[in-house]
Amino acid sequence: MPGFDIAIIGAGITGLNAAHILHQAGHKVQVFEKSRGLGGRLAARRTDFGIFNHGAQYATARHPGFIQYLENAINYGTAEKWIAQQWCAQPAKQAIANDPAETWYRGHPAMNKLVSPLNSGFDIQRNIRIARITPTDHNRYQLYSFASDQDHKNRISHGEFDGVIVTVPAPQSAELLMPLSPRFDIINDVKMAPCWAVMLAFDSPSSAPFDVFSKPDPAISWIGRNPVTEAISSPAPYECWTIHASPCWSRDHLEEKPENVAKYITAITKTVFAQAGIKLPVPVFSQAHRWRFARTTSPLGQSHLASADGRIIAAGDWCLGARIEAAFQSGEAAAHAMLDALQQ
Ligand SMILES: Cc1cc2nc3c(=O)[nH]c(=O)nc-3n(C[C@H](O)[C@H](O)[C@H](O)COP(=O)(O)OP(=O)(O)OC[C@H]3O[C@@H](n4cnc5c(N)ncnc54)[C@H](O)[C@@H]3O)c2cc1C
């Protein structure tokens, strides 16, 4: 098969896995990513107090291909197994290690590094938000961004491609793809919940006997200790925690100011720690990040969606479920579907 030009929109694990497979198959792949960093919701924020994993916390793997990928990432130095002490409030107040039957993996030193083994050999254009995909007269597709967020009249072209794989969250995929074909209307049925993530750093140890406290309060779905990383401005390591507000609380406070969210969630976290018998020190750093489309609550139920010619494909975690493994599998399925379509 001759080398085709293929565009991938989004540099999360779905997009990078698809890009990696298509590049390995000999095609010219270009990835477009709206942010500066790679990994999407496998996100890490570098601060003066250490690195926070403020998106996905860990991956689990059920399928041999993804287990193999994660084990290779460990050998590559960009992943590690995480044996976390989880707090059980009921029946006894105690911390227990996570179930050895289900290994937890996380990126090393931070979650975004989980995609590093996929990122080589193809071009990635960062800080470009693709806004339109338009068919051309010669069976190809042209990609455009807007000149600016305010200026939607002037478009910037980013080239023509034989195939395009869109790997952005469902509502954003629907916006890009529904004008192209009614086949994509079904994306509107997918539901994704938001999540406010709050990052807290302490300059003295919290004395918490646990690393993880799941669903401690109706407002909070996750409290997790971040791995100790070297702080940028100080030799002393800080203790960094990520708190995820529950989907319900996040939805109710979606348009709240980040500084207010940080204040509210810090106060609830303090109460939760106090109930576990731990007095939290005053944080030296707190910041909130809103994930408008965090976790899929109602997935598509199939690995990807394709246009009639098979050369426009939608993929992402939202196809199969709210997990990193689902995203990885969707990216793989999309790449193979694209290879089939290009052979026609
Ligand atoms: C708070 C939170 C906690 C989570 N916890 C876990 C967990 O513990 N375990 C687990 O398995 N999963 C977890 N998840 C889910 C997991 O992060 C996702 O399933 C997975 O990362 C999705 O990958 P993706 O590549 O499909 O999408 P994304 O990672 O969202 O990648 C899409 C990319 O597309 C880019 N993009 C969007 N629009 C455009 C555009 N128009 N042009 C160019 N680029 C664009 C985005 O910037 C992004 O980089 C969590 C998610 C969140 C938010």
Automatic annotation (TrEMBL):
<protein>
    <recommendedName>
        <fullName>Amine oxidase domain-containing protein</fullName>
    </recommendedName>
</protein>
<dbReference type="Pfam" id="PF13450">
    <property type="entry name" value="NAD_binding_8"/>
</dbReference>
<dbReference type="GO" id="GO:0016491">
    <property type="term" value="F:oxidoreductase activity"/>
</dbReference>
<feature type="domain" description="Amine oxidase">
    <location>
        <begin position="121"/>
        <end position="339"/>
    </location>
</feature>
<dbReference type="Pfam" id="PF01593">
    <property type="entry name" value="Amino_oxidase"/>
</dbReference>
<dbReference type="InterPro" id="IPR036188">
    <property type="entry name" value="FAD/NAD-bd_sf"/>
</dbReference>
<dbReference type="InterPro" id="IPR002937">
    <property type="entry name" value="Amino_oxidase"/>
</dbReference>
